[in-house]
Amino acid sequence: MKHLFMLFILFFIVGNCSALKETPVEAEMPKKFTQFTFKDECKNDSVLTEIYNDMKGKATILDLMKFYSDELAKDMNINSPYFKKLQKIFDCGITPKTMSGYYHGAVIAFRNEAMLRTFDINTLNLKWPLARIFSPWTGKTFEKINAETLRAVTDGFETNATIAAWGANTYSTRSIKKRVTVELMRALGIKLIPAYPEEVKKYDFNVKGFFFIGKPGKSVNPDNKGRMVYQINYRWPALHTFPPDNYCIDELVQIAEGLYLGQLNYATNILKKYDPRVDPKVYKYKNFGYWMLMDSDWQKRRTEILFDIEEN
Question: pTM for this one?
Answer without folding.
Answer: 0.89
